[in-house]
């Protein structure tokens, strides 16, 4: 009896999800890790079929049934599960038949892959963004120095020209030098550190909605799905308004240019717990999703949307998303993008426990 209690205690303290199925593929046991992964208790799942939580693939269910009688083990890599809360999960799982009286019990071990895949993806995104910003800083320095010389020479030349009609040409040189300097400054993003105060994310969003509603003249429906439980956090409200506005304007322009039926943009907020951003885990994070029903981002541009000067529009500067990413990075957060025809989603993650000792 003591050994059985010890075995059960070990199972219940594993971080790996463990599930036992009988020969009818009904759940006999789930450890707490499995209940957390699938967002449901064993009692609730014992009354539903395996196709509702493990796989809807009929051939995979047949493989499970065959494993019961053949006694063969197998493993699936990066399989997709749907939790009872509706979230899609990427997992590795192994199936091992255990002989029991005249039938077999299937032992399923599930290891979540989402966190590892997310860490790899976000570290790559942050690395690319940091590399790009360093290149832009170096390029900006090399461009601004000669621009200053060109502008100064044009001003000196204007003073020496006796013919006033020629001043028009020196003014063109000065104005174009100023335009290039402003473009370089925009490439660098916000030049000031965030002015941290208590920020209500929904006040930020309502400000953005009022600006976008005036610009769109009612052509695009703005929907809201707010989580009122999200607390205030330390941030720069003006910079956050700019970051969100850049993304929403991009969505609005995409919807306008492609004449989408019933164009709409959804702003959704949720509080998420135990979220990994890059290599750091945060206890509580504000997740803001900006979702539009436009044509989606072309496949070849998905990996480059946060790079400066990359735009899918002929008249676009390609700076809006790069600046938005820089602003959220300064708040120790991250922006992710997922897109397919009919749905583009930008997810902004901002930790609700802010650091004050450094600003990225």
UniProtKB/TrEMBL annotation:
InterPro entries: HATPase_C_sf (IPR036890), HATPase_dom (IPR003594), His_kinase_dom (IPR005467), HisK_dim/P_dom (IPR003661), HisK_dim/P_sf (IPR036097), PAS (IPR000014), PAS-like_dom_sf (IPR035965), Sig_transdc_His_kin-like_C (IPR004358). CDD domains: HisKA. Signal peptide: none annotated. The keyword Cell cycle does not apply. Residues 138-354 form the Histidine kinase domain. It comes from the Bacteria. Pfam families: HATPase_c, HisKA. NCBIfam families: PRK11073.1 (NF008293), sensory_box (TIGR00229). This is Sensory histidine kinase/phosphatase NtrB. It comes from Neptunomonas concharum.
């Amino acid at each position: 009896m003591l050994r059985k209690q010890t075995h059960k205690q070990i199972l219940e303290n594993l971080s790996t999800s463990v599930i036992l199925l009988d020969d009818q593929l009904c759940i006999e046991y789930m450890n707490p890790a499995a209940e957390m992964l699938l967002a449901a208790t064993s009692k609730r799942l014992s009354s539903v079929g395996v196709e509702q939580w493990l796989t809807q693939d009929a051939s995979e269910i047949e493989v499970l049934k065959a494993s019961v009688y053949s006694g063969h083990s197998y493993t699936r890599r990066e399989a997709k599960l749907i939790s009872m809360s509706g979230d899609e999960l990427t997992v590795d799982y192994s199936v091992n038949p255990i002989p029991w009286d005249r039938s077999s019990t299937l032992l399923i071990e599930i290891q979540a892959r989402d966190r590892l895949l997310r860490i790899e993806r976000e570290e790559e995104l942050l690395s690319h963004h940091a590399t790009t910003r360093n290149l832009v800083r170096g390029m900006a320095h090399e461009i601004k120095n000669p621009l200053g010389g060109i502008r100064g020479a044009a001003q000196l030349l204007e003073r020496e020209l006796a013919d006033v009609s020629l001043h028009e040409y020196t003014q063109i040189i000065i104005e174009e030098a100023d335009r290039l300097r402003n473009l370089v400054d925009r490439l660098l993003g916000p030049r000031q550190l965030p002015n941290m105060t208590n920020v209500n994310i929904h006040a930020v969003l309502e400000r953005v909605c009022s600006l976008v509603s005036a610009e769109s003249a009612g052509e695009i429906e703005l929907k809201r799905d707010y989580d009122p439980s999200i607390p205030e956090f330390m941030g720069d409200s003006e910079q956050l308004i700019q970051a969100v506005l850049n993304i929403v304007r991009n969505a609005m322009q995409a919807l306008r240019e492609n004449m989408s039926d019933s164009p709409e943009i959804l702003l959704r907020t949720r509080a998420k717990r135990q979220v990994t951003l890059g290599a750091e885990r945060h206890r509580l994070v504000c997740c803001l999703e900006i979702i539009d029903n436009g044509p989606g981002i072309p496949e070849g541009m998905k990996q480059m949307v946060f790079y400066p000067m990359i735009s899918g529009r002929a008249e676009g500067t390609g700076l809006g998303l790069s600046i938005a990413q820089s602003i959220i990075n300064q708040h120790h957060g991250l922006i992710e993008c997922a897109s397919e025809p009919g749905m583009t989603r930008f997810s902004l993650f901002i930790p609700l426990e802010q650091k004050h000792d450094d600003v990225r």
